[in-house]
Amino acid sequence: MTTPLCMFATVATRDDMTTVACVNCGRRVTIPVVNARKIIAACRGAEETRWSRESLPSPCWAGSELKRLLAGWPLYITVTADCPCTARASEMDVRGCEWVEENLDTVVGWLREQAEARGLPFLDAAGRMLVRRAIRNARRAAAN
């Protein structure tokens, strides 16, 4: 029998420390930023929502890739102190590319929400294209 694992998403980052929380059981852990991708803990959530090592998706950092695309030319859109961008990107990274594909409308909605909050124009078609590009780039990076 395998031990179910927490599925962590970043909640907050301050200076050189980051706080992560399991999306299933709510366990919060504060660790140095350099160790943020290395944390593993046994999940205390409901059995049907917990993950095991065998059920973890292959590493596919679609959220990190989406942040990189948004921050690069020609968009130059970066994370602000009051946006949930880092937490959502971490959730996308944890859940994997398959989840992002299955929940494309949710992710595009997150982008639309932040565009409206920043007073930027937004087209759903462009948002879908950007998310699909992030997935493709993340899968290529994972394959190498």
Describe the structure concisely:
This protein has 144 residues and is of the alpha+beta class. The chain has five helices and three strands.
Please, could you describe this protein's structure?
This protein is 43% helix and 12% strand. By secondary structure, it is α+β, with helices and mostly antiparallel strands. The protein folds into two domains: 48 residues, no CATH class; 82 residues, no CATH class. A three-stranded antiparallel sheet has the order 1-2-3. The longest helix is centred in the C-terminal third of the chain and has 20 residues. The chain is globular and about 45 Å long.
List keywords for this structure.
144 residues, 5 helices, 2 domains, globular
What is the radius of gyration?
A: 16 Å
What is the count of helical runs? 5
Number of strands: 3
**Residue share in helices?**
40-55%
Mean pLDDT across residues: 83
The order of strands across the largest sheet is 1-2-3
The poorly predicted ranges are none
Strand content: 5-15%
Structural class: alpha+beta
Tally of structural domains: 2
Series of H and E elements? EEEHHHHH
Largest sheet: 3 strands, antiparallel
Apparent shape: globular
Distance between the termini: 31 Å
